[in-house]
Every structure is written in structure tokens, then in C-alpha cells.
Specification:
Layout lengths: L4 E7 L3 H8 L12 E7 L8 E8 L2 E13 L3 E6 L5 E9 L4 E9 L6 H11 L2 H24 L2
Antiparallel strand pairs: 1-7, 2-3, 3-4, 4-5, 5-6, 6-7
Helix pairs in contact: 1-3
């Protein structure tokens, strides 16, 4: 079982400005190093929306599907990946009267990941510790790109 992971940054913008970017899941490939495409199914993103995702790390490419489990505009967005049971979330916390926003990205696996996921991580990604380090690095990259996008308008 992989550990729960998180990364955070502070963005010089209101939670509403940050939300406009973070909640636009079809643009996730612009920020996340492993997300090549997120296809949104069933209209605008909201709780219950499903996605088809194409992920890539080096030569490894794999599809996943996810369901939005939390959608609180200006506050929190979370989705659960069906194949490994991991929950990815973005939490927005207003700072300094709402002129800045702390963004926390998390990858949680409260009940552990699936046996298949664990086997594939072991075989193709060098085990949990290596994969978790890669995910943490990529989460920090994702937040840096989101920060740059929001602050540049």
C-alpha cells in the first residue's frame, strides 16, 4: 500500500480565480506531468461526473477512469480512480482576506490500492517508494504550473 501524499503552494489570487483553473479538468494535461488527456463525460464537471484518463510516464501509457466525489466551488474538488481506489483532491484555503489562496493537492488511498495496481507499480515503476517519490515530484510540478497559469491570468 502506498502512503498518502500531498503537496501545496500559495497562489496570489482569490479562491474563485484558482477554482476556475483547478476545476477545469479537461485542461489537467497542461499541468500534470502524467496526465496526457482527461475526457469529461456527461456535461460540465460536478459531483458524479466521470472521466476517462490517459496517463503516461516515459514509455508507459495506461488508461484509468474516475468519478468526481466532491465538488464544492471555491473550496474542494476530489475524484476517485476506479482502477486503484486512489482519491485525488484539490483543497483551496483563502488567505489574507481572500487575496491569496493555499492549494493542497492530495493523493489518498484510505483502504489501500488494489492488488493489480500494487503489482504494476512494483513491476513497472520500481515499487511503492519510487512511485510515491515520482508522484510527489509531479504533484509539485502540477501546482507550480497551476500557480503560473492563475497568476499570469
Amino acid at each position: 500500500m502506498s502512503n498518502d501524499l500531498h503537496a501545496e503552494t500559495v497562489i496570489d489570487a482569490s479562491p474563485e480565480q484558482v477554482w476556475a483553473v483547478v476545476s477545469d479538468l479537461k485542461r489537467m494535461s497542461k499541468w500534470s506531468p502524467q496526465t496526457k488527456k482527461m475526457i469529461i463525460r456527461g456535461g460540465p464537471v460536478r459531483e458524479g461526473t466521470t472521466t476517462i484518463n490517459i496517463n503516461q510516464a516515459g514509455w508507459r501509457v495506461w488508461p484509468t477512469t474516475a468519478k468526481v466525489t466532491t465538488f464544492e466551488p471555491g473550496r474542494k474538488l476530489a475524484f476517485k480512480v476506479r482502477e486503484n481506489h486512489a482519491v485525488w483532491s484539490y483543497e483551496l484555503q483563502p488567505l489574507e482576506g481572500g487575496t491569496r489562496t493555499r492549494v493542497i493537492e492530495r493523493r489518498e488511498a484510505p483502504g489501500g490500492t488494489t492488488k493489480l495496481s500494487h503489482t504494476l507499480i512494483d513491476r513497472f515503476f520500481g515499487g511503492d517508494d519510487n512511485f510515491d517519490a515520482t508522484l510527489t515530484r509531479d504533484m509539485n510540478t502540477t501546482l507550480a504550473k497551476i500557480k503560473r497559469t492563475v497568476e499570469q491570468g
